[in-house]
Design brief:
It is globular and about 30 Å long. The protein has 81 residues and is mostly helical. The protein has one domain. A two-stranded antiparallel ribbon has the order 1-2.
Length: 81
């Protein structure tokens, strides 16, 4: 079974959603969308299906270790359990 990636950030889901909606760069927008959905509690597989990316790529964007930054530049602290 794959490890579950949990996004821990000081930003609320509403703030992440707002950043997703306001992003003008399409790549950045997708990355914010992924972080927002993960923060809402969706699994990497669910997010990948919704966004159209592979689960592996979603995990790469979010990161797999504590204290890493996502590729969108948002300050997230991640914990793998």
């Amino acid at each position: 079974m794959a490890k579950r990636v949990e996004v821990k950030t000081e930003l609320t889901t509403e703030e992440l959603h707002e950043r997703y909606r306001k992003a003008t760069n399409p790549v950045e927008r997708t990355h914010w969308h992924i972080v927002w959905l993960m923060k809402e509690g969706h699994t990497a597989t669910e997010v990948a299906e919704r966004i159209g990316y592979s689960t592996r790529w979603v995990r790469t964007i979010v990161g797999s270790g504590a204290g890493q930054r996502s590729r969108c530049g948002c300050r997230t602290r991640l914990a793998v359990r």
